[in-house]
Structure formats: C-alpha cells, structure tokens
Amino acid sequence: MSRKHDAIFDDVLSDLDAVPDSSDRAGARFLKRSTAISDRLTGEVEEKTLRWIDPARCRMWERHNRDYALLTEDNCRDLIDGIRSQGQQEFAAIVRPVDDVNYDYEVICGARRHFAISWLRAHNYTQFKYLVEPRILTDEEAFRLADIENRDREDISDYERALDYADAVARYYGGKQKAMAERLEVSQPWLSRYLQLAKLPEAIVTAFPSIRDLRERNARELKPLLAQPDSARAVLEEAAAIGREQAQARSGRGSFVDAMAVMRRLVRAGKPVQAKPAQDGTVYRRAAGDKGISVVQKGHKVRMEFEAAATRAQLSAAFDAYLKARFEGGKS
C-alpha cells in the first residue's frame, strides 16, 4: 500500500466515531459499508453464494422426493412459461457438491426448475442457465430441507411423499415414527397416515391411472377392507382386474379407469356380500348392483346361473358367499 493510501486509511479509521456530513460522499459510502458489515456480524443479514450453471452438470439426488420421470412439458408448462417470460430463473435450487466426474452437484430441491431449464435449453433457448445455491448437507438434512420445500406443493403426489417418508423413517430415525414426527414438526397421526399409504399392495397402486392419482385418503378408506382376509382377497382381485385395464389403456387400447371409478370398484368389491331372494332362487353377490350367482335348489340338485360377463373376482366372491351361507348357515 502506498503512503498516500496509508494516510487515507488512517484518516478513515481515526474518524469512525464521527457522523459523516451528508455532503461527504466518501463518508456516506463508508457508513453504509460499515453498517452492512455490522448486519452480517450480528446475523441480521446472511449472504448466500448463487451460481448460474449448465443443468447437465447436475444429477438428481437418488432419494429426491419427486419422481423426475413423471415430469413432462405439460405438467411443467407454467414454470417453463414463467422462466421464459422473466428471462431467467428467479428462485435458486438447492444443490450439494458430489464427487463425480460427470456431475458437479446433485439436486436436493428444484427438480421442476431443473427440468424447465433443461427443456428450454433443448428447445433453442440456450441462453438460460440453472440458478443454484450450493450447500454442504447430510442426507438427513437434505431430506428435511426437501420435505419443507415440497410439503404444501400440490404438484408432488401423496404417494411420492409417502414413499419418501417410509424410506426416511427407517434410514434416518431407526424406524421410530415419534422421533421423525418431532424432527419434521408434524403430528404423529398425520405422519402415520402417509406411512400407511406407502404400505398399500402393489396391485392397488397399479390399479390407479398414475401414482399422482393415489391419495392419502384412499389408503384410509381401503384400510379396514384390507384388514380382513375375505374382503382383502376380493379387493386385491378387483385391483388386479383394473390394473389389466389400465395396462391396456397405456398401450393405446381403451380408456383409463379414472381414480374415482377405481375406488368405487375396490370398495364395492370389499363390502360384505349380500344375498337376496330372486324369483327363481337366491342371488349371491359381493355388493348391490354387482353381477352374482343365482342359485336354485330342487330336491337333491342345485342349479347355478351367472352372466357370461361376470369377472373372476365377482364369481369367486359370490361363490364364497354361497358356501358360507350353505355350510355356516346351518344348511346341509
């Protein structure tokens, strides 16, 4: 430092306690700078390091709570249009460094932003870059941060969140729901409902058009039906039948069964079987309005009739109801 600069610096330091004159621009600038330093030292202001990077240098965290494969141009259209209108990404994604020659960071929060920027760059908007805030985080800290950001978002499904919680309770909290609920600052019953959703059999999950259509309330409604062996078997058989219809729809053959219709069919399959008299005998079926078996006994012979369109699940449940009524109801 030159003698001239030394003199200026000493002069500034000797006058720290003085209030600069409003006309003294240098003093005003120094006061503003010292105030900013004071704010940082007291914790009232926190500086963050943000970077503009190529999204191709980021990978998704393997335990990210959003299924990246479900992101499409359509369900990210609002974000794509918003970024394009603003000219840049407004809110930084949270990433952490990785030791990988192919990537610099992994995304903890910001999968949709990553998809939107990647889509824009692939469609002739190469000027856009991915805005990130690098942080050093443990896996448990990364999980909680991602959960806080996405807990109230409607564009992440209940089932995605449920799988994330089920993995986390075992991985980070030793299987203790209470410890996890306290750490996330949520109630135990609320957390328990999501963990119950994650336990749904695969047959029921695939019965829905998409995992995004599967809600926490669906698990609550199905729970009592899945708790009893007879009704559980009927529900799972119906779920398998619906799953085959959904698979055909995915391959372009036929229409999807919407989520409301899926639930109606599953609940109806698990309801107690009702038998009612018919003109030519007794009809056994799973539920009112369902296809069943008409049974007529004449002497030592029993005649059964059913519609050709009845499904295996319907016939199985109806025949079980007949056997129960015949042998447990005192008939010989």
Secondary structure layout:
Blueprint: H1 3-14, H2 25-42, E1 51-53, E2 58-60, H3 77-86, E3 93-100, E4 103-109, H4 111-122, E5 130-134, H5 139-150, H6 158-171, H7 177-184, H8 188-198, H9 202-207, H10 216-226, H11 229-250, H12 259-270, E6 274-278, E7 281-285, E8 293-298, E9 301-306, H13 312-327
Parallel strand pairs: 2-4, 3-5
Antiparallel strand pairs: 1-5, 3-4, 6-7, 7-8, 8-9
Helix pairs in contact: 3-4, 6-8, 8-10, 10-12, 11-12, 11-13
Please outline what is shown here.
With 332 residues, this protein is of the alpha+beta class. 49% of the residues lie in helices and 14% in strands. β8 and β9 (301-306) form a beta hairpin.
Domain module count:
4
Helix run count: 13
Helix and strand element order? HHEEHEEHEHHHHHHHHEEEEH
Arithmetic mean of pLDDT: 85
SS strand fraction = 5-15%
Oligomer: single chain
Structural class determined from secondary elements: alpha+beta
What does this structure look like?
- The structure is a single chain.
- This protein has 13 helices and nine strands.
- Helices cover 49% and strands 14% of the residues.
- It folds into four domains: 3-42, no CATH class; 55-156; 212-269, no CATH class; 273-327, no CATH class.
- The N and C termini lie far apart (111 Å).
- The chain is elongated and about 110 Å long.
- It is an alpha+beta fold and 332 residues long.
- It has helices spanning 3-14, 25-42, 77-86, 111-122, 139-150, 158-171, 177-184, 188-198, 202-207, 216-226, 229-250, 259-270, 312-327, and strands at residues 51-53, 58-60, 93-100, 103-109, 130-134, 274-278, 281-285, 293-298, 301-306.
- Helix 10 runs parallel beside helix 12 (259-270), helix 11 runs antiparallel to helix 12 (259-270) and helix 11 (229-250) runs antiparallel to helix 13 (312-327).
- A five-stranded mixed β-sheet has the order 1-5-3-4-2. Strands 6-7-8-9 form a four-stranded antiparallel β-sheet.
- The model is unreliable at 11-16 (pLDDT under 50).
